[in-house]
Amino acid sequence: MLRALWRSHSLPSKHVYYRPIWELRQLITLAIETSCDDTSVAVLETADEDDTFQDRPAAKLPFHEKVTADNAQFRGVHPIIALESHNKHLASLLAQALCTLPSPDHGSPSISIHCESRWLEKKKPDYISVTRGPGMLSSLNTGLNTAKGLAVAWQVPLIGVNHMQAHALTPRLVQALESRNKEQLSLEFPYLTLLVSGGHTMLVHSKALTHHAILANTMDVAIGDYIDKMARHILPAGVIENSGEIMYGRLLEQFAFPNGPSDHDYVAPRTGVEELLSKPSSWGWALTAPLSRTRSGFRSKDMAFSFAGLGSAIERICNRGETVVTLDERMDVAREGLRVAFEHLASRVLMALQQLNEADTADTQKIGTLVVSGGVASNQFLRTVLRSFLDIRGFAHVRLGFPPTSLCTDNAAMIAWTGTEMYKAGHESDLSCRALRKWSIDPTAEDGGILGMDGWKMN
Question: Could you please report the per-residue DSSP string of 193-256?
């Protein structure tokens, strides 16, 4: 009976040390995300390495909140407004987060926190996780400098997180939040990551924690930026102004498919040739797939994304002088604009899967999972297009992973999880580390990728 309260812990001798169950503590991190206009704070608890966590999830979020700057009047992110929002909200979010820290375990370090008019002893976080880049420098510095102050005050390590790496690892966080035993933690490297947001469009081969090879990137604008601009041309007057939103993807999706997925009625093209064919509309216009042809010839096999030309075509359709564009035609433009853009994304995913699975190298592993992350990942029609493409074109075995909507956009939970994975791998940041406007996740990039920047040390 007494033995059941202890866990076996191997030592280099023949003797066996049975670790007291009260020493099997959770790792706790306080995380801050301020890379753009979202101010987000999270507290994440993860299971001890020796804990089989049969009766609880591998990770839990006692606190996770976000405040988005009010940029509505600028129809986009305004750096000064974002900075003012960070300065206004970050401290209060941290105060709320500290009150959710657990009570200290037997012998664990604690801090005194003033919560609800009284002082309470709370367990001290094991390390601080914070977005270091990429992003807007003024916004990043707000979070990074605050995190450095907490790390110094509490004498705990600082983990400066790559924002794009965090998006790529988000599905591993979701799995940990939902899993109740180690066997359920099945999302192992390698896998493909499609990062789609207002600032990024890239297809990534996630090989390891700090090794994410960029297979395709946008040549001009990001998919999220394209969708926002398309919405400005398509949506009827007053829809955007009355919404109070600054990212219009959700509004456009609701306009194009008012009944949700039941309106999709979509089957992917069966061949690459069919995929490139323009589909004339009943209104007399047609949208051409990006990179399907140029003056110098066909570019349909380029591992790259392009949305600027498609956006210009939609602008011309919606602004035809005195011609009135009806609601029905606007809906058709929205549906076609989304279809062609999402098929463009899917075509590069298929090309990558084919190339990786055909590669004749010793370390190549078959890709079985495609993770889609970033703000555009919440679009239900994108999910329909990708699933149909994979099923029809010979990759039905590939699983699609979409984080919950709250974890698709910028958030501190993904920063907390990535900080935890980096911490467990032995990495921490020096207090001299600086915010980075640009920071690749590809180790072959000019800056050396995640570990190529200065400011890292091994714990």
Answer: EEEESSS-EEEEEEEETTEEEEEEEBSSS-HHHHHHHHHHHHSPTTHHHHH--S--HHHHHHHH
In the numeric block, which tokens belong to residue 203? 């297809």
The pLDDT value recorded for residue 13 is 39
∠ CA 368-373-379 to the nearest 5 degrees? 105
Please check the confidence at residue 78 and state whether its pLDDT lies above 60. Answer: yes
Tokens at 258, concatenated: 């008012």
H or E stretch including 130?
Answer: strand 127-133
Contact 251, 229 (CB under 8 A): no
From first CA to last CA, the distance across the chain in angstroms is: 37
The predicted-structure confidence for 224-278, as pLDDT tens digits, reads as follows 999 999 999 999 877 777 776 667 888 999 999 999 999 999 999 998 888 888 8
The full 3-state SS of 255-298, as one line of letters, equals HHCCCHHHHCCCCCCCCHHHHHCCCCCCCCCCCCCCCCCECCEC
Cis amide bond preceding 190, omega within 30: yes
Contact 215, 351 (CB under 8 A): no
What DSSP designation does 186 have?
Answer: -
Q: Does residue 362 register a pLDDT over 50?
A: no
Q: The tokens of 252 are what?
A: 């456009």
Determine how β-strand 118-123 pairs with β-strand 110-115.
antiparallel
Residue 46 CA: distances (Å) to CA of 56, 81, 176, 339, 352: 10, 35, 8, 40, 34
Instruction: Answer whether the bond into residue 134 is a cis peptide, omega within 30°.
Output: yes
Hey, is 456 helix, strand or coil?
strand
Three-state secondary structure of 23-69: HCCCEEEEEEECCCCEEEEEEEEECCCCCCCCCCCCEEEEEEEEEEC
Residues 6+ apart with CB under 8 A from 441: 162, 164, 165, 168, 204, 212, 214, 449, 450
The percentage of residues in the chain with a pLDDT greater than 70, rounded to a whole number, is 87
Rounded alpha-carbon distances, angstroms, from residue 220 to 224, 306, 339: 12, 6, 19
CB 424 within 8 A of CB 437: no
Could you tell me how far CA 192 lies from the centroid of its own chain?
Answer: 13
122 neighbors 113 (Cβ within 8 angstroms): yes
